[in-house]
Amino acid sequence: MASEARPKLAVYKFSSCDGCQLALLNLEDELLSLVGAVEIAYFLEASSATLPGPYDVALVEGSVTTAEDVERIHAIRKDAKCLMTIGACATTGGIQALRNWKDVNEFIRCVYARPEYIHTLKDSTPISKHVKVDLELNGCPINKVQALEVLTALLQGRAPHLPPHAVCMECKRRGTVCVTVAQGIACLGPLTHAGCGALCPSYNRGCYGCFGPMENPNPDSLAAHLLSTGVSRSHVIQLLRGFTGYSDAFRAASDKLERIAQ
Amino acid sequence: MSASLPRVSASVAMPKGSLQQVFDNLRAAGYTLVGPTVRDSAIVLDEIDGLDDLPQGWTDEQQPAHYRLKKAPDNQYFSYGVGPHSWKQFLHPSRLRLFSVEKNNGSWTIRPSQEPPPRYAFIGVRACDVAAIGIQDRVLIGSEFRDPHYAARREQVFVLAVNCSHSGATCFCASMKTGPKVTGGFDLALTELPDIFLVEIGSEAGAEVLGDVPWEAATAFDLGRASRVIQRAERQDGRHMLTDDLPDVLYENLESPQWDEVATRCLSCANCTLVCPTCFCTTVEDVSNLRATSAERIRVADSCFNRDFSHVHGGNSRPTIRSRYRQWLTHKLASWIDQFGTSGCVGCGRCITWCPVGIEITEEVNAIRAKGGK
Amino acid sequence: MSTAFLTSEVRKPIDPMLPHLATIQDVKPTAVGISMFSLVFADPEERANYRFQAGQFNMLYLPGAGEVAISLSSDPGQPEVLGHTIRDAGSVTRAIGRLKAGDVIGVRGPYGSAWPLNKTRGSNLVIVAGGIGLAPLRPVILSILRQRSAYGQVVLLYGARTPADLLYTDEFDQWRQGGIDVQVTVDLGEESWRGLVGVVPQLFYRIRIDHKKTAVMACGPEIMMRFVIYEALARRIPKDRIYISMERNMKCAVGFCGHCQFGPTFICKQGPVLNFAAIEPFFGKEDF
């Protein structure tokens, strides 16, 4: 890519912990060649110097939780040729979407001394609920190798390699023994989009679904099986309502379990 | 005790501790030893050094979607059933670089993978897995095209097989006619008895490895004890596959309602295909650097349960879990026979044990038979 | 060492997955979003030795982008230049679409089965194509034109979505002059279109042919081929005289990757050209 025609990249933050932006900055070795290939025009986490749009690629971290967020994401969309969400918050609503099952005003009253200063929407929603999203990168946080792959693919005009199959593929390819079958640990791996390299199971922990649902998840079957092996209904609901609990597939499954319980 | 080497196809008795000497001889001959060892709450296959690494005194309990490592009632080395791993991860690795490309002045230089193939001695290969290796041979090096990566590993492998002394609840090798006794495709085959190993010599290489190892010709008493151990294992097979008319019964029931039923349970997570010792499917990942001046092609294990597997222009030839499960089962038990002259199933039971929701291949076939009126 | 299990003798390890370098000689726009790429092997020896049959395909490769199976659409009588008619459809074909004359591309092949040009000598031929499905049949037409008298009546029934999607329209007159009855239809006409509007299988009603002595060769969307088979069978053309070319996902083209299976058939090895009688039990099964 010639340096005179470097595509302009912008990185934005909504309701989030900044972890996905930090994952980008953690690219370290690759960051220098990335800066050579793209012009980082707007990235407040990295630099206060900004260049005006329009931008070729906008990366969006975080979910929409305020009325201002709604206006801002529409403006960003207008200014960006390609809009890509990065991370669980932007892609599914994030851990803060747990409030969508509760009364947010009650939280505000509990947490803030002067609740009248707080203006927030009832729900935390993914970016795709508000504007057209061209590409979604999953994870809490995103995997930096996947982030680099997406940017490389965009620069080269090819489809990025982001396999949407289950985390189980990654466990098996690296030889990790299934924690569910061998240890009885409840694991969302069979429902969850690959991309992390099956990190948690390799440390003898169950997957908690931070990459969101895989291509054709069947949560009802896994939930029924977990219940049949003695895992409590509340535990299964809790497992499904994690970092990507507000995604369509996980939400439908946990709501169904809740309805059955009532 | 004998100074000369035993003959091929002879059976000899060997003190148990002498297995270490066999290992040492294999290593001296340049082999990397791969065998069973306890790790991550299971008996896995990994590089091993000696007898101490073997799962002595350990066994397992297996059921659909259930595997537990347990203390064995005896103190034997090979009292367990096949675990989560299979030998295909060494012969047909799940990740392999095919070649790299450098672009320069408008042309390219293609560099094939140059790493010398590892020279493995497989320790403790069960009859079902010997059969599985034979099946992958037919697929990957048995036709006009040969996979050179598989061939390079396969041609130098040393197989130290073990006859099963007990079978698990998910095993059905007897009904697939692959076990529990190893009948070919090995260099040495052990049967573990309480006091000795009975060793059957399968090849010249196997005889040579016994070199300085103390052995005696097997007595009729030893042979009888060994045969009873294997018979007991055969009786213990926990599952049974009814293979009568198998290709036809599946081809005639491609629209069976059972496919819809199993699709409600199947997670399409691909675990069954990845633990299967014969499933061979792969895909290729293309990676490149940011400036697109260098690239690699990497072959990785794939599965017919993944959406991209059946992607075609304008859609997907198998868009549903129903169609993917049907593809897997009919390939494994029916079209495999048309393609390679053998079933793709060896009855090891891994797909039953390691399915996260415990779908049983044997039961699915029974259900299809029942619903098809056969 | 357990070699009893090896079914063939040890041969020199030739990796069938390694591409061979070729240069793009010419890119000719053929229809909307479709171009014919003419390739020449970089190695003179390879150029001299390469042979292919009508219906076969190559795997085309671009570093970083990947590989794609593309049928040969040029004349098998001139195997030193390999013609591939490519539509910008996926990630790899889009990348190929950006190439120009002089650029390098990776090629391996030819793979797969061929149209039965020898077996059908002396017969009438009904060649049926939908959209880009004409690409693998063009070598059939070019081969027939070189030995027209070896065949009986030859009809091409060809259709595409719109007139702009029709391939090789500048060659139709030449084909007609060579003795091939070319019948063309489109799904959607436009003001300037003076030809037929309708689906391809309907063209069967426009031909007068002795079906007893006829073979069918068809390539196009599977739904089109289903109706072509229906029309052919209705005219009592025997099942084993109907040939179709099928498409499935393909990663290796040599039977290793498993992707292209269609029942017992590996499309890359026994296909892409298949005899209908052999695949009938599976053809048209939902999501098979």
Notes on the structure:
The complex is a heterotrimer of chains A (262), B (374) and C (288). With 262 residues, chain A is an alpha/beta fold. Chain A has helices at 19-25, 29-37, 67-79, 88-92, 104-111, 144-156, 167-174, 179-183, 199-202, 219-228, 233-240, 248-261, and strands spanning 8-13, 39-43, 55-61, 80-86, 135-137. Chain A folds into two domains: 3-156, Rossmann fold (3-Layer(aba) Sandwich), CATH 3.40.50; 167-261, no CATH class. Chain A contains twelve helices and five strands. Chain A has a five-stranded parallel beta sheet with strand order 2-1-3-4-5. Chain B folds into two domains: 11-93 and 114-236, no CATH class; 246-282 and 301-371. Chain B is 32% helix and 24% strand. Chain B has helices at 19-28, 88-91, 127-141, 148-154, 173-176, 204-209, 220-236, 246-251, 257-265, 271-275, 321-340, 350-353, 361-371; strands at 11-15, 32-39, 42-47, 58-63, 66-71, 95-104, 107-112, 120-125, 158-162, 188-192, 196-201, 216-217, 282-288, 294-301, 311-312, 315-316. Chain C has 288 residues and is of the alpha/beta class. Chain C is globular and about 50 Å long. The termini of chain C are far apart. The model of chain C is unreliable at 1-12 (pLDDT under 50). Chains in contact: A-B, A-C, B-C.
Topology, number of strands of chain B:
16
Largest sheet of chain C: 7 strands, mixed
Mean pLDDT of chain C: 93
Q: In terms of quaternary structure, what is this?
A: heterotrimer
Q: Which spans of chain B have pLDDT < 50 for at least 5 consecutive residues?
A: none
Measure the end-to-end span of chain B.
57 Å
Shape of chain C: globular
Note poorly predicted spans of chain C.
1-12
Largest interface: B-C, 77 and 53 residues
Name the CATH class of the largest domain in chain C.
Alpha Beta
Observed structural traits:
A: 262 residues; Rossmann fold; 5-stranded parallel beta sheet; 12 helices; globular; C: 288 residues; alpha/beta; Elongation Factor Tu (Ef-tu), domain 3; 6 helices; 30% strand
